Amino acid sequence: MTVWNLGSVNADMVFRVPHMPAPGETLSATGYQKGLGGKGANMSVAATRAGSHVEHIGAVGEDGLWMKERLAGYGVGTTHLAELPGPTGQAIIYLDAEGENQIVLLAGSNTEISEAAIASALEGARAGDIAVFQNETNGQQAFARAVKARGLRLAYAAAPFDAAAVAAVLDQLDILVMNEVEARQLQDATGLAPEALPVAEVLVTLGAKGCRRFDTVSGQVQDVPAPKVTPVDTTGAGDTFTGYLLAGLDQGLSMEEAITLAQKAAAVMVTRLGTADVIPTRAEI
């Protein structure tokens, strides 16, 4: 089967800092690296390294051809990754000594994806495939409609969080993945707790505490603990979780088994410095 990902592609520029800068403060970085990132690209690489076939739908700018080549080199399908005029998405990442981060995004070509390109890409989708999208591109509603029209299972990683964007697609989702902060923001915006959302599977990631699963069909609430590790860099951990989760489901694992696999992958990921380029393989997990 195939995982279809409408997702961002960013150049990640990571600056290691002794602490997060305060307003008006100038800091000297203790390190720097540039690599492939973006929530979409991270998820595509994670699902591919977990052993699934992934087709990435999106766009890069004139300065982003190296990112398209790198994705293809990692085994991600890039036939539907358009090359457009203008800049590719950029992410400026501050990473402190505790492994926490702050991120500033430039959307660039990620918000220039045409609905026609989305529809054309999904012509190759088949019932039983899985689709996923995030909030770093345009076209979410068009993608959700097209995916459901083809009978695919639809997952949504609701980050960066936007209450209106989530509300617009809630009734079309099969799987919703959020972190603890995003879950609170969605509840504040809609008045609905996770267990009351009109989505069959709601997963709330809790960082070091693991993941809480809300099976809204059966009413079951399940906590799945995370492996204990010492974090170096938390950037991309949630994307790694989502990519591995969907790959596990694509390969026939139960939801609980897929969550367990995804948490192992995320745990390994936070022990590494970087994003898409250092996502672990299934063998390493």
UniProtKB/TrEMBL annotation:
Metabolic or biological pathway: Carbohydrate metabolism; D-ribose degradation; D-ribose 5-phosphate from beta-D-ribopyranose: step 2/2
Residues binding substrate, per UniProt: 10-12, 38-42, 136, 239
Cofactor note text: Requires a divalent cation, most likely magnesium in vivo, as an electrophilic catalyst to aid phosphoryl group transfer. It is the chelate of the metal and the nucleotide that is the actual substrate.
Residue span, Carbohydrate kinase PfkB domain: 6-281
Cofactor: Mg(2+)
Keyword Metal-binding part of the UniProt annotation: yes
BP terms from Gene Ontology: D-ribose catabolic process
Active site as annotated: 239
Localization per record: Cytoplasm
Regulation: Activated by a monovalent cation that binds near, but not in, the active site. The most likely occupant of the site in vivo is potassium. Ion binding induces a conformational change that may alter substrate affinity.
Cellular-component GO terms for this entry: cytoplasm
Residues the record lists as binding ATP: 179, 205-210, 238-239
Catalytic activity field: D-ribose + ATP = D-ribose 5-phosphate + ADP + H(+)
Record note on quaternary structure: Homodimer.
Function: Catalyzes the phosphorylation of ribose at O-5 in a reaction requiring ATP and magnesium. The resulting D-ribose-5-phosphate can then be used either for sythesis of nucleotides, histidine, and tryptophan, or as a component of the pentose phosphate pathway.
Family the UniProt entry places it in: Belongs to the carbohydrate kinase PfkB family. Ribokinase subfamily.
Protein name: Ribokinase
Organism: Pseudooceanicola albus
